[in-house]
Design brief:
Number of domains: 1
Structural class: mainly alpha
Order of helices and strands: HHEHHEEHH
Length: 145
């Protein structure tokens, strides 16, 4: 994915609400999972409580477009090969390599981007645009009366 198309996709996803993993297109799903996988540092090994806290924080912020609990998201990240866990399910880490070429492309396309900043800025613009439309709508309504 090019940087431009990645930023455009992130901006489009940023203003959505109530997305579930099952109702997303494959490209959006892969980008969202690649984005979510980054809430754990690349070289860290984290215990399950740390991973759960990181996912909850991500879902409350950058990942607010999703309507999914942290457990489902954690399992999906493992199923897609973005995260690995030890045999006892106690230690988690980001996968060193991603086997799915399309998913690996999404992961790579996010590397040099300030994704949290892009998403926060787009959401702020969206709120401002809505407020402006609402204000204009109110002005037009009062001018008509």
């Amino acid at each position: 994915m090019s940087t431009e198309s990645t930023v455009a996709a992130l901006e489009r996803l940023a203003i959505k609400r109530g997305l579930t993993l099952g109702n997303m297109s494959r490209p959006d799903l892969l980008l969202t999972l690649a984005l979510a996988s980054r809430c754990m540092p690349a070289s860290a090994q984290c215990a399950e409580p740390e991973v759960n806290a990181a996912l909850k924080a991500w879902l409350a912020g950058t990942g607010a477009m999703l309507q999914v609990d942290h457990v489902e998201l954690r399992r999906t990240l493992i199923d897609f090969g973005l995260w690995e866990r030890d045999g006892f399910g106690r230690v988690y880490r980001r996968a060193a390599t991603v086997n799915d070429p399309e998913l690996a492309d999404r992961v790579g396309s996010l590397m040099a981007l300030d994704t949290a900043g892009i998403i926060a800025e787009r959401r702020a613009r969206h709120v401002a645009e809505r407020a402006r439309r609402k204000e204009l709508s109110g002005v037009q309504t009062s001018a008509q009366t």
